[in-house]
Records
---
Amino acid sequence: MKRKKRMTQDRVVNVLFHLIAVVMILLVVYPLWFVIIASFSNPADVASGKVWLWPNSIDIRGYEKLFEQKQIWRSYGNTILYTLVGTLVALFVNIPAGYAMSRKDMPYRKCINVFYIIPMFVSGGLIPTYLVVKGFGLLDTFWVMVIPFAVSTYNIIVARTFFESSLPESLWEAAQIDGCGTLRYFIQFAVPLSKAVIAVVGLWTAVGLWNSWFNALIYLQNENLIPLQLLLRRILIANESLLGAATGTMAQELRQLSDMMKYGSIVVSTLPIMALYPFLQKYFNQGVMIGAVKG
């Protein structure tokens, strides 16, 4: 009887947990789905609450107005280049740094740890950073979006934790016996065994670069170099300015068009990252769990 009662309780708990999981999934997925269907819906239907699961009528004026901007494709290309090149540079910098910090025999390891950690809490500020960027001749160039902010202390710590917990010291000792040096060991052994943390750091960096607009606002003046996010921001601000100057029926039409362009800009700016994430999700989860459980 006790065993049967326990099995019944376990089933009830499992059902409860599944229900909670379904509710949490809906809370996360539905807002994303609503933004997508709202971008294709008549804004009057959205404002009146008629749009729930699918559009009542298809209206793509928001996308048409958005893609009428001549610069949007160039900005899209810029963002893709910034993301690809910036992610590669960040991996090239942060992964080796994390591996070096994981080596217990590295000289002055504690001092270098402090050197990396201090900038996490104390920043030089916007004006000194601007002067440094200008002093290196990176201002208003492609590389200003890639090089100055490639080093991430947090990513280095994640990589260090992964290497410390996942690469056994016996592997390094065996490699030394076979005449393997530090650089060769890192390239031939450490990197192939670190796909999880590379995917994690790469994903975090790519998302940050894709969504970045503030650095472009501060350091870029050349219109041919601005990223997608900054261009979308300018378009939405311009629409709000026109809306403030309009009255009557024109104001209502502009409000509806502005809302459609907002939803459309969200879809346009997030769709590539959303499409990429499922392919990296298993590495992302694996890397986070290894660092959390074994660290």
---
Amino acid sequence: MKLVIIEPLGVNDDKLLAMAKDMLPSDIEIVYYNTRATDTEALIERGKDADIIAVSNLPINADVINGCKNLKMLSVAFTGVDHIAMDACRANSVLVSNCAGYSTVAVADLVFGMVIALYRNIIPCNQVVRKSGTKDGLVGFELEGKKFGVIGTGAIGLRVAAIALAFGCEVFAYSRTKKEIPGITYVDMDTLLSTCDIVSLHTPLNPQTRGLIGKDQLALMKPSALLINTSRGPVVDSEALAGALNGGKIAGAGVDVFEMEPPVPESHPLLTAKNVIATPHVAFATKEALEKRAVIVFDNIAKWVKGEPQNVM
């Protein structure tokens, strides 16, 4: 049986291969590509003899799935699988597993990094102090007492909610599935948007969530409110968000995800909008999270080999 790790997984090469050898049966041949290839032909060439492919956020289209004739399992080193041609996987009886949970801590950390940076004007403060300036015009806000809204209460959303509670926020949530969590009040989305000082998005990307936050939803938010998106770029209408920021309809935004994977074009409307902190899809990327992710990738494969598949999508 052959495993192809078709792109880097963010862990030191030697450490990654040692993890694979420790966790997988000795009769699995491991081939590792520590560079990314994005064209279909190159990906088919890499995976043509593979029984198993491990992939991170590299788009795997239907042609790649169809071209890898031996493929039986795809171990996705990511929570979402919207970059995978799932229909082609089903048509070819390719099992797909994901790595839910590896980035819960990392993503929640970045949410509050963005919120605090916006509330306390950290970037402008850093700039002005280097020019012999003062705090004039840069007095910020505290988190305590603010109304914090979480849209999507999976593992990441619930951790964000717990941290918000620890900061002394009043926490509201909107989610397809309501949970009985002390301190969290579930409301409809319009109520959440119109009530909260901070709104943090934690939904997957699917037909129901694409464009979830558009012009009409942004119009409900307070002029003093912040929007944080560390989920998926297309959940938010970027043009509408840029318009709301530039028009003073909301006060600021933290954006880690866009309609495309970085590099993001300099012409993107959010990169020139007012009071935006933008990061290059880095919320999940901490040293600890990437190592947790690799463990789950190989554990998913090991369990599948034993006939006990887990984290199946």
